Amino acid sequence: MSIEWGLNSQSGKSIALSKIPFILRNPFYIGLFRYKGEIHEGNMKP
To answer: What does pTM read for this prediction?
Structure first.
């Protein structure tokens, strides 16, 4: 199904469906990052 959606890694390989929940739960994708066990808000423009 990831091939149909055009979801590819940087190397061009398709992303495994089992990785999608991990990606969506990663706070980095909403502008947050973890540092020394704490979550901080990034200050870079999207």
So the answer is: 0.46
